[in-house]
Structures are given as C-alpha cells and as structure tokens.
Amino acid sequence: MSEQIHLQERLTDVEERLTNVESLLVSINQKLELNARLSSGAQRHQEPEVAPTADSAEALKQWVTDYVSMRLQQLVPETCVHPAEAPVQDGPFLDNTNVPCTEEVVHRVKRIPIPFVREMVVQRVAENARAAKIERVDIEFFEKAATF
To answer: Do residues 127 and 120 make contact, with C-beta atoms less than 8 angstroms apart?
Structure first.
C-alpha cells in the first residue's frame, strides 16, 4: 500500500512539474511572438499589438503533451506497444519469465489492466512456481500464487 502512495506522490509531483514547464513554455512563446512583432513592427511603421491567441497556447500545450508522452513511453517501455513475439515451441510462458504456463493463465494475466500490477503478479507467481518446482503453471496454481 505504501508503494501505491509513494507512486501517487511521484505522479502528482511529475504532474506539477509538467504544469510548471507548460506555463513557462507558454510565457516563452508569448515573449518570442512579442519580440517578433516588435522587430517586424519597427520595420513596418509599428503595427498594433495583438495579444497571443488561445489557439497558439493550445497548440503549444498539445506539443508539450505529445513530447512528454513520447518521453514517458521511452522511460517506461512496458506500457508501449511491442511487436508480437515469435511463438515458443514449449508453449506459452509468463510475461518476461521462463516459467511455462497454460493459455488460461496467459489470458488471465492479460486481463490485469495496470502494467506495474501485472508485472508484480507475474513475478510473484514465477517466484512461487520456481520455489514449488512447478513445471507448468495452471489456473489453480496461478490463483493461489497470485494472492498477496
């Protein structure tokens, strides 16, 4: 439970930092537009100043969102889409392990919606299977071993 609280605190901190970065980028964009207007206004006999539009601020926000999303996917690759793995001749395995399992177990693991929780469950089941020297994890063993 404390890991979840710690994770939530880190997520809140990241969101606050991203909000600060976003506001800084918007202010930088506004200053750049103002400087561009001032420099072009001096050459064109001073055009009237126009406040930055909401569209330009939204476009910048969208760019920042896309960029941060891309960087987070690079940092947390298990949430990214990966190409399908080649089929293994010995049957399916638990994700990122060498522990064989049944198709039912693979299906059950895929139904876990949160990636880090899925990884924790898989690791716990794999450890229990190795300790119990289970040759192939079936659904009964999975249900017992996945219980925290």
So the answer is: no
